[in-house]
């Protein structure tokens, strides 16, 4: 049944499906030609410094290697000249990327152990190389490099592991169509591929992805070609009709969204609407060989990020950047396994919940976060110090029961609220989750 018509009025009646509200954790994957040089200066998080020429010259995103080289100065440019030579074209990486050790089922197994319920694969980043057999270009992974349908194989493995599959597509940028190094501000960024030719190309490839793989998430990046605005209602209506569990993000120039996005420190979280936090385990999305353990989130910080996101009405889409050979670096895999171990014990306070009606608070003894579902209330205490810690939750009544049986806690009602004492706590357990009775 064709529920949605190709009009903005019809499309805007779409609502966020329950699975996306409930799932809380997804895995983002940036893998491609940029994984071969695997280089970027580990400078700063997006949003921590002005998004200007300085940012693009020192861009910590390894997946932006093509652009960083073409800026013509800065660490990535200098690295490229020294390592590959001035005349070495980015496209040559397509024949160097072999993915010889890639086993999609092992990826899916790891993501499931991490506690993820959905996966989003980058099918075409801004460099234009496609990880699927597109009829509109031979610049893809079935014709060059791996000689495999990366998107198809991973989609099958993810679904067999019981997770939803989503697909990322760089809608507004393809540097092969038009490329000015992107350090001149938002206007250049949104009009990097302004032609009707590219708008038609993006539309057709997006339709390919929808019809071939039926993604549960269609994750567009940065924006949509202004020259193709008239076609977007047709694309979105088709997507919602074909993928009845589907959701789209907010990166369509403000024209439409099911959920908003925040990337590192860029963007705002809003408890009144559904949103998604996306970031790499390190400072880059694509694999960056320059990143060390000091750049990677610890398990404790990863759990904290998940808790604060979920308790504020968001999902966490945490990114892995595989090596060119298809293996996921152990310092990334270890963090995912650690997150999964925490969720296996405390997931009741995360999955299927909604952000609590109470505002989350921060105290000198740690953060206090609230979630709830089906009449149940949960409180999650984050940042607890080693040993005994006492916190008071203003206005709360009842008592707390730890979800982790090894956590010892007492609670009592006081005139100031519910006083909770956690005894002999080991911070290595990460945040402590409790059911409130």
UniProtKB/TrEMBL annotation:
Keywords: Glycosidase, Hydrolase, Signal. The record marks 278 as: May be important for catalysis. It is an enzyme of class 3 (hydrolase). Its EC number is 3.2.1.51. InterPro entries: FUC_metazoa-typ, GH, Glyco_hydro_29, Glyco_hydro_29_N. Pfam families: Alpha_L_fucos. GO terms for molecular function: alpha-L-fucosidase activity. GO terms for biological process: fucose metabolic process; glycoside catabolic process. Coiled coil: none annotated. GO terms for cellular component: lysosome. Residues 2-348 form the Glycoside hydrolase family 29 N-terminal domain. PANTHER family: ALPHA-L-FUCOSIDASE, ALPHA-L-FUCOSIDASE-RELATED. Belongs to the glycosyl hydrolase 29 family. Alpha-L-fucosidase is responsible for hydrolyzing the alpha-1,6-linked fucose joined to the reducing-end N-acetylglucosamine of the carbohydrate moieties of glycoproteins. This is alpha-L-fucosidase. The lineage of its organism: Bacteria, Bacillati, Bacillota, Clostridia, Lachnospirales.
């Amino acid at each position: 049944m064709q529920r949605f018509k190709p009009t903005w009025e019809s499309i805007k009646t779409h609502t966020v499906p329950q699975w996306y509200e409930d799932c809380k954790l997804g895995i983002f994957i940036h893998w491609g030609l940029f994984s071969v040089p695997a280089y970027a200066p580990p400078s700063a998080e997006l949003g921590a410094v002005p998004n200007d020429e300085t940012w693009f010259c020192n861009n910590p995103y390894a997946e932006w290697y093509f652009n960083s080289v073409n800026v013509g100065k800065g660490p990535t440019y200098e690295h490229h000249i020294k390592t590959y030579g001035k005349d070495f074209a980015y496209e040559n990486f397509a024949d160097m990327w072999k993915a010889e050790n890639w086993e999609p089922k092992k990826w899916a197994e790891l993501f499931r152990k991490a506690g993820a319920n959905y996966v989003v694969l980058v099918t075409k980043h801004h460099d234009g190389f496609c990880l699927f057999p597109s009829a509109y270009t031979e610049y893809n992974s079935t014709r060059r490099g791996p000689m495999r349908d990366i998107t198809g194989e991973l989609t099958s493995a993810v679904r067999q592991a019981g997770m939803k599959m989503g697909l990322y597509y760089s809608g507004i940028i393809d540097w092969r169509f038009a490329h000015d190094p992107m350090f001149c501000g938002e206007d250049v960024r949104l009009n990097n591929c302004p032609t009707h030719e590219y708008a038609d190309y993006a539309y057709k490839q997006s339709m390919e992805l929808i019809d071939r793989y039926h993604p549960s998430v269609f994750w567009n990046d940065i924006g949509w070609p202004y020259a193709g605005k008239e076609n977007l209602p047709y694309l979105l209506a088709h997507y919602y009709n074909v993928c009845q569990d589907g959701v789209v993000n907010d990166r369509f120039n403000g024209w439409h969204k099911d959920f908003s996005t925040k990337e590192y420190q860029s963007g705002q979280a809003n408890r009144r609407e559904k949103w998604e936090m996306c970031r790499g385990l390190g400072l880059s999305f694509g694999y960056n060989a320059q990143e060390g353990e000091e750049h990677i989130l610890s398990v404790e910080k990863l759990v904290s990020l998940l808790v604060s996101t979920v308790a504020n009405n968001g999902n966490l889409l945490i990114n892995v950047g595989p090596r060119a050979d298809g293996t996921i670096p152990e310092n990334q895999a270890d963090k995912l396994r650690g997150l999964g171990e925490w969720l296996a014990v405390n997931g009741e306070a995360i999955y299927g919940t909604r952000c609590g009606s109470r505002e989350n608070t921060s105290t000198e003894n740690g953060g206090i976060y609230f979630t709830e579902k089906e009449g149940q209330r949960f409180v999650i205490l984050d940042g607890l110090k080693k040993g005994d810690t006492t916190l008071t939750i203003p206005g709360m009544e009842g008592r707390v029961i730890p979800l982790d049986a090894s956590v010892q806690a007492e609670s009592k009602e006081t005139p100031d609220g519910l006083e909770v004492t956690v005894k002999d706590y080991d911070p290595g357990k990460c945040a402590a989750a409790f059911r409130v009775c």
